[in-house]
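Re: the multi-chain job from yesterday

Posting the exact lines I submitted so nobody has to dig through the queue logs.
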Amino acid sequence: MFRRGYILSWREDLLWFWLLPFLAVGVALLCQQYLSAIALAAVGVWVTLPHQFASWLRTWGIADERRMWGDRLYWGPLLIFGGSLLGYGVAPISTALLVILWDHQHSIMQQHGFARIYDFRGGTGIPSTGWFDLVLGWLLFSHMLLTSPMFVFPLVRELYRLRLPVSAGLVEGVAAVSFWLLVGYLVVYAGHVIWTLRRGGSVNPLKYVFIATSYFLWYFCAWHTASVLVWGIAHRIMHGVQYMVMVFWYLRRQTASERVSWSVAGLLVRRGWMWMFLLSGVVYSGLVQLLTGGQLGAFLFGWARFPTLYEAIPVLGLGAMTADEGYAFVTLALLNTLGMTHYYFDSFIWKVRDRRIHGGLS
Amino acid sequence: MIRRVRPVRLTVEGRIVRWGYLLVLPLLVYGYPAGWPAWLLLVWLQLPVCVASSVRVWRGSWQRFRMLWFIGVVLLVSGVWEAWTSGRIPRSVAVSLQLPPGPGEPNLYFEYDLPAVESRLFPGLAEALLLQAVQLNYCGSGLAGLSAHPACRKYASVDAAAVRVVLEAALRQQPKTNEDIYYSYIEVLRGTGATAAEIAAARAEWRRLFPFSDRPDPLAGDQSAGVLDRRGVAD
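And the result, structure tokens for all chains:
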């Protein structure tokens, strides 16, 4: 009837998949109380960007996987980049809304994917379970999007900007319909679970613990705080950390086999090298910040604004260094660093009197 | 001897395009001279091709890109709508095709009264209060006719002090990701005759919460701000 199965193990699931949402909410509430909005940017550079790096590593890091996914791996980024440029140029509101909606769809699908892994590992459910779980995820998340102040407020504003003036009554009506639809589906879903058990199938209760904790985070943040800061931090921590844990675990298993040849991914996830995996993500994050002109100070929660060299001197009529100037300043320093590192290394690696390099010279 | 020509058998996609345009064409023929909005004409024009190409993507070897295709089609339809409503279709194109011009960017405060809708849905929410404050500010600005606008008549008072009260209610919720509220509050304080210490404190709070802001310092050039800075009161 009930059969337990874990994504990783009892201890690791407890930490990463059941307790993490609560920890993330706690961190987010503390940030709301004591820190500025820079905390959101800090979580972005420490968690969100590294989790995107994990995605690159997962797709490009192993030759077999590269061959498996084929041209989608390069056509995808190229088409998305082109479409994004075009979209922001011609229809910025539509493009921004689409990016947000795709982000939400991605969040739903990630949690759905983990739920599927629970069934896969536990050998539970029946063939239709995946579809019932998927609809459950969509309805739960959509209900939150259509009813919570944090999401409905900007949605209504953007609809007005698109000249689609919805009335307050219509919004309330949509919320009511969404509520009863969700309630109805929960009854259907419970019926499906009972049907599964009667057919001799089994259920993994830990999957429901996972789904419950995930949606607790989203509903609590969207409904009870209505704060972009709390939502953003809690969601990013849960989403990003769980993804990185999953990628790390997956790549380690995929590359553990002796049949698999050497790969970058295998190197970064081998035993004892977790720090390298994490460091790579942070370096990627730093590079993205530099490339996009993002604030490097976000790494330090805004504690230091190191791209800003000069503060304003109002008495002399001088303004502070602007963000653009700060960016140019940092990139110049980086270029100089590359050059000077080359000078420095050459100052000691080519000493002919050093016997250790004679092998390469003879 | 009569040679019988075998009719060319169209693919499913081809039939969708043919029948699609047979259905859409009357709408275009009627709608264009009738002055239908450009976005509607463009959507009708795209529809058969979008449906046919979607079927092709779903059925053929391009199926692996179906997610991107779906995203692209949604963006295309929504983008056409937005480009027309916000007047982003180039004027030369609109003139050469004799398209009716789009209405342009909407005024959310007096054309639609968005603050009233958001306030009814989310009374007391910081973002809704900011919308109210902006509307109040316009109402009390003395611009021709605005104070008599129906959107303004719902307020008991439309002076700067009323704007300040609304913004302070918003600030009590610590909306730390909404820079507009903190920044506007500094301006409102200056307009309501607040003390230098109050203004400096508001500026310090804005600076603390948004250290990377690109907005100009509202007190730039203000000697009192410099003095306060050096004494460490404001920052």
